[in-house]
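Why do we care about 3D structure at all? Because function follows from shape, and shape follows, mostly, from sequence. That is the central idea of this module. The next example makes it concrete: a single protein chain, its amino acid sequence, and then its structure expressed as tokens.
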Amino acid sequence: MRFRLAAILCAAALAGPAAAAEPSKADLDACRVEDQPDHKAAVAACGRVIKAGADMPDLRSMALAIRASNRTSLGEDRLADADFAAAIAADPTSTYPLILRGDSAMALGDFAAALAGYEAAIKLDPDNPTLWGRRGLVLVISGSPALGLVDLDKAIAAKPDDAELFRDRGRGRNLTKDYEGAIADFDRAEKLGGPNAAVLTGRADALFLLDRLDPALADLDRAIGIEPDDFYAYVARAEIHQRKSDPIRALADLDRALSLRPHDVDALLSRAEFLVTQGEFRRALADAERGLKLQPENTWLLLTRGDALLNLGRTAKGLGDFDRVAILAPSEPNVFGHTCLYRSVFDGNSARAVNDCDRAIAMSGPAAYLLASRSAAHVRGGAYAAALADAEGAYKLDASYVDALYLSGVAKRGLGRRTEGDADLAAARAIDPDLDRTYGALLTP
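And the structure:
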């Protein structure tokens, strides 16, 4: 940016004497957005450039836009908005302030404002592939990846050697579930621009979703080697370590991620959910409660806190969280699938457990774990025939779901078919000896 400002000043000087004193080289150098500037110093320097360039609309417009961008970085949003408006008014034919306004909005996650900035720039310069790429990226990120890919395809056709465009199209292809296409784009981006963390984590996403865990892990290791403070890479790598049954490394990565962003709600949820699976219920409860202070109505944090409370023996409070979630998300099948599973084990009111299972099945269709959970709830209510029907239905859907075999044994014993029931129980225990800990209380003497 400083070179463009200097070029404008040089052109103005050739055209004739300026009415005001020329801005100093030091101010031109400091009034910039690239290379991580000192934002306060940049704002001050841009102010001096703006004053000196009062008779040069293009210089004034650019300096106003650069000051606005730096003010955005300082959190001075109202002042930034005023500067952007003044920059556009000073030179209405320039795309530069519109692009910077879009970039600043993107950095804040204000995708609607970013899209408005880029589209206004495209109206002024409709054949600019850089602008197509920027609009394509914001569409990809903001929930319209198919539309974004149209822009990115056009941009790449015009600029086939632009690594960033291939990286951004890779992100779009990930979101449209074209994982092989995404990998090809990330490969091309790496070939053109060399390895960088964004390319490597994007490719790791695609590889992970194709269940190619080892190369995904290798990419994330490389990404962290390049950017040791890459929050997202730690979160993604933790998920791979969980899938690879490496809980020590998974927890270490989640801890590292939260040391970088201690108030990130998604990371707090991920660690809380992981700690529940490891039996670390008190630590899980602490993370869930930290997250709920930030987002009191986050349904998955409420469910996870409920899970931890139930496992800590605080049944009424845990079920209270489930009741609250049912009010907040009455049409979410995954919510009722979750509460069905837990209520079948912890809720003494079997009818309530059966009701949650019924709602989950009605919304998402039968699944082995739902039928098995409803089977357990029926056992709690003494409805052994219904319990057996659900257990057998679950086993037919997924013969590897050993809970169904165990519950079949429980139901058969309840119906007086002890020999058959004991055979099912023995077969299930041979596969998973821990089933007694989960369902043993349901067994009849």
